[in-house]
Design a protein that fits this description.
alpha/beta, 4 domains, Rossmann fold, 16 helices, about 525 residues, 19 strands, 8-stranded parallel sheet, globular, TIM Barrel
Length: about 525
Amino acid sequence: MERSVRILLVTGRLAAEIVKKSASQARGCKEVHVYVADYDVAALLPVDVIIDAVRYAARKGYDVVVLPGLHPAPSSLLRELSTRHGVVIVKGPRDATALPEALEKICREGAEPGEKVDAEPDPARLLERVRPTGVRLPCGLLLPYRPPPIAVWLESYRSPARAACHATIIGAGAGEDWESIKPRLRRLLDAGVCVGIDSPSPDVLVEAANEGASIILSLHPGNIDYVAPRLPKETCVVLIPAEPGSLDAMPPHQRVKILASLAEKAERHGLIPVADPVVEPPLRGLARSIEAYIEASRSLKTPLLAGIGNIYELLDADSLGAVALATSIFAEAGASIMLVSEESWKARGAADEAMIAAAMVSIALSMSTTPKNIGANLLAIKEKKPVTGYRPAEKGVVVDAWRARMQPFRRDPSGDLYIYLEDGLIHVTRIRGGEVVDTVRARSAEEAYRAAIARGMVTLLDHAAYLGRELAYAEQALRLGRSYVQELHGRIKHPREDEGWIIEAYRRLLYGSKTTTSYSSTTGTTTSV
């Protein structure tokens, strides 16, 4: 509901246009105007300039003055000026992208003098600024020429492939013929999905395209002359510089030269080419492939595809960060299509992560900023900033639990409880006297313990506390797509808990007593250390 609040935003010359644009997107406010001070940097406005702006606001009847969020003026000064001039003076968010949400908060809830009004930008609003342009495929999918936006294609060798991304690519092995692939293709087409096919068999590629597949992976010098003339017009073809597995450290300029030749052939046949300079795995050519993408984006007039699955599938690190970083790097290098996979256990959920990363990077590119503080993130274990809850001012008697006297273990007469995950639900099975009594299925830890209490599955306090602890671990594992084994596996741990020995071993690697060899540039001799 719109409140009768008039707001004056104070800024400097350099940020004026950004602030004006952000202010125009605020909703729920009566009036929002921008005061551009005769000073370049908003965060460095002198106090006398701020006072001039406040006096102006008081004369013109504004209710609230919003200063730059990074300005060092103390809250005490802002409260004093507010009292003196009869205008509420606050600081806005650190980043101008969150100004609309901060202004809406002020107009909806009000603000106290000296307060810092922070907010997270609404990614849905920021996505509206991304203007999709490119080639439209017959299936209706937009093929961006250069980012933003960024398309995400999921390649799956399992059946049925899910359709969470912009396009689903059916991965076919060397031993799969057309008849084994056709049912998968038909199911996806019937579901209205934009489908592609990736097969080493030229005949399978041709059959799939004529059956309705819009995207063909991959054409290379060894098969393009056979496949291209047999494909329907406007089929999207992904081009690679060499047959899979035979790239052999091909230098970037050679890859680009071959791709340019393949793109010309594809266009002569009325096809829509997409160039794939090929992403090589970490420590096996990744840096070289980044160079190839940069060169391709400068030289080629086709969209670029990056198979970022070659990075996170071959890296023992959480996929969330790897996907975000890979998307950022290859988007900056000019790739507008990210090809992802979920073939390994650790890569499950990578398609959803890639969609979030693509949205985050697309927003950042459209705003010419970094992918930070734009309302979308891929943080799961760590967090952007701490959240402080209620803490009693008085603690009473403080007891160290590890020194407290513990009660001896007692078996709950209601029975033993076995907790496990199955079919996307938390299960709690009660066994008493060697016989299964009942099982509770739940979607959350709270549902599980409430049902367990209602059914009398726990009667002792320590057993109830134990159940709550294990259910918390089980729910955490369920939400993050991890496995859970009661009492053994499920708690989220920092890698140093299990891999801490590596830290010490690696420290000793550079400080140990092993014999090393040093080189003296003055004498040209080697010395044992």
